[in-house]
Amino acid sequence: MKVWALGLDFRSAPLELRAKAASSDPLKLVPHSSELIFVSTCNRVEIYAVSEVDAILVKKAWASDCGFNAKLENPIQVFEEADMVQHLFRVTASMDSMVVGETQITSQIKRAYEDAVSSNHVGPIFHRCFQRAFQVAKKVRQRTEVGRLAVSIPSIGVKLAEKVLGSLQTKSVGILGLGEIGRVAAEHFASIRPKKIFLFNRTRSVADEMAHHFDIETQVCDRAEEVLHQSDVIVSAADAVLVKKEDLRELDQRGNPVFVLDLSVPRSVEVLSDLERTFTFGIDDLQKIAEENQSLRSQELYKAEQIIEEEVKSCWIELSPASISQTFGRLTSKMEKMTMEELSTLRARLGSVSEKDWAQIEKMAYRLTSKVLQDPMKELRLQVERNAESESLLQFFRNIFKI
Amino acid sequence: MSVFPLVAAAILYLAATLYLSLYLRNLSLRCLRFGRFFLLAGFIFHILCVVFYFFEAGHFIPTTPSEGHLYFTLLLSIGCLALNFRRSLFFVVIVILPLISLALFLFHTGEPAAVSEVVSLPTPSPWLRTHILLTIVGEAFFVLGAAISVVYLIAERQLKRREFSGLIARIPSLPSFDRFLSEILSAGFVLLTLGLVFGIIFAKSHWRVDWLKDPKVIFCVLIWVLYAGILSLRKFSPFYRGHRTAVIAVVGFFSVLFLSWGMDYFVSSSHPRLMIIEQNNTQKSPP
Fold it and tell me: What's the predicted TM-score (pTM) here?
C-alpha cells in the first residue's frame, strides 16, 4: 500500500482549473483505495489516498478528466509517503494558505475528514495521520505567532479587517476596481468566505467574469455607491477617487463599524480623521505592518516549521510500512504463531491433560512469549525515538528476528 | 492579622504581572510558566489570608469596608485566574493585577469614621448578608469590565491612529472584546440590582433614619442608572456599542471606586457607620 496526496492550490493553478479539478469524482479516479479523503476549498483541491495504485497514474487520469492541456505542465502536485504527512501538517496548520495562519483551513480539513469517516473511507493510517494533523495545527497556533504575522498586503488587509469587525463570515465585502491589485484582494477576502461580495469595475464584464468564479454569493454593481451602501468592508483599488469625504461621513453614521482599505496609488479614498466608527487604512499603513512582520515572521515560521518537522518525523515512524508499530506487529504475530505450533506439538505428546490444566499451560506459554518480547521492544522504541538513524536500527531488529 | 502575607501576595501579583508582560513581549513559555506560578502563589497567599482573617474575626461575611475590600480583591484575583487561560485576555490580567496589589498594600491604612447608629437584630439577617455579598461581587465585575474597557479603548485608539503595536496583534477583535465587556457588565448589573433589592428590604425594616436620602444610597442608585442606561441603549442601537460602552464602563469604575473607598472619607453618610448587632454578637455594616 502506498500513501500519497495529489492536489492543486492557488499557487499551482488558477481558479478556473481548480474549479474543474473540484468537480472530478475521487472515487472514480482512485477506485480501489483502502483509504480516501477529498479536500475541496476555494484555494485548494486535494486527494489523500492509501492505495495500491501509483500516484503518478492517478495524476495523469485526473489531469485528463479535468481536460488540462497535455502540452502544458501538469499543475497537479504529488506528495508521497513522509512528504504527504508533511504536506498535510503544513496545510492543516495553515502554513500553506493564501492568508497564512487563518484558521478556516483547519476546519475545512476537519470537515473533509469527517465526511470521509462517515462514508467509511478512513482507516487506521488516515485516522492517526489526520488526528495528528489537527493536534499539530493547535500546537503551531499556541506556540508561534505565524498567524498574526502576515506579510502580503492583501493578507494584512484581511487580518486588519477581522481585527476591526470580528469574523468576516457574517460581513459583506465590497471591492471597488478589479485591476490586478483589486483581483488579488478580492480573492483573499473571498478565501475567508464572507457573507456576500459586491464587485464594482468600470468595465462590467471584468466584474461579471470574476463573480462567476467565486463559490460564494456575489453581486456585481453598476455604481460604486451601491457597493458603499451595502458593504461592511470596502476595499478600493480604483484609479480614481471613488470614496469621498461625504461618503465616509455617511458610512460613519451607519451605526455598525466600517472598514475601508485603500490599496490604490494615488489614493482613491479621501482622508478624514474625525470618524468615530469608520476605520480607514491606506497601502502605506499595510506596507508598514508588512515590513515589521517580515523580520519577525522568519523567526516564527522557523519555529512552526521545526514543530511540523518534529511531528512529521515521529508520526512517520509510526505510519511508515517499515514502522516500529508494524515491526512489533509482525514480531508479535510470528511469536504467537510459533507458540501455537509448539503448543499443538506438546498437546499431542502429552496425551491426556484436563481442560483446566491445558488452559493454564496455554496461558503460561503466551505470558512467557510476551514477557520475553517486552524488554527488547521497549528498548527498541527508546532507541528509535532517540536515534536519528532509526531506519537502520529497525532493519537490524527485523534481521535478528527474521521478520 | 499580620500584614506580611498580604504584602507577599501583592508582591507575587506584581511578579506575575511582570512575567506575563514579558511573555506577551517574547512569547517565552518559561515566562508564561513563571507568570502563572506567581499568580497562583499570590492567590494561595491571598485566599489563606482571607480565610485566616475571617476565622480569627469569627465571621465570614465582611463587616467593615476593609473586610469588604479583602473579599473584593480576592474576587478580582479569581477573575484573573479565569482570564489567564486565554492568551488574548492577558492584557486585561496585566491591568487588573497591579490594582489588586495596590489594594492589598493599602489594606491596613485605616477605617472610616465612627459609628453613628446602632441597630440591634434579634437574629442574623439573611437580607443584609446577601446584600453585602451581592454588591461586592457585582462591583468586582464592574472593575473587571473597566479593565477590559481600558484595553479596548487603547486598542481602538491605536487602530484609528494606525499605530500597530503588539497589543493590536495579540488581542481578540474589537467586536468580540465588546461582547465580552457587555457580558461582564450585564452580570455585574444583575448582581448590583439584586444587591440593592436586598439592601432595600433590610433598610426598610431596620434602618431607622431616612435611608432614601442617604448620599451613599443615592450615589449607588445613580451608578445603577448609569449601567442600566448603557446596557439598554446598546441593545437598541449599535451607536452605543464598543467605544461608548467602554467609556461608560471606565466612568462606572471610578464611580464604584468613589462609592466604595472615597465616599466614606468625603461625604457624611450614615451607611458605612451603621452598626448592626446581631444575636450572636457579630457586628455588621453594609459595605
Answer: 0.66
Q: Which H, E and C letters describe A134-189, residue by residue?
A: HHHHHHHHHHCCHHHCCCCHHHHHHHHHHHHHCCHHHCEEEEECCCHHHHHHHHHH
- Give the 3-state secondary structure of residue B209: coil
Residue A272's closest chain B neighbor by CA? B160
Q: Nearest Cα to A308, choosing from A49, A135, A103, A102?
A: A135
Contact A139, A308 (CB under 8 A): no
Domain endpoint, select from A103, A125, A143: A143
In whole angstroms, give the CA distance from residue B164 to residue A152: 16
Q: Does B168 touch chain A (CB under 8 A)?
A: yes
Give pLDDT tens digits for B180-230.
999 999 999 999 999 989 888 888 877 666 777 777 888 888 999 999 999
Q: What is the pLDDT of residues B1-26, one digit of tens each?
A: 566 778 889 999 999 999 988 887 77
Give yes or no: residues A115 and A12 share one domain: yes
Query: Which residues form the domain of A94?
Result: 2-143
Counted domains in chain A: 3
**What are the tens digits of pLDDT across the range B24-55?**
777 677 888 899 999 999 999 889 888 888 88
Cβ within 8 Å of residue A73, ≥6 positions away: none
Chain B residues whose CB is inside 8 A of the A165 CB are 173-175
Looking at the structure, do residues A48 and A22 belong to the same domain, yes or no? yes
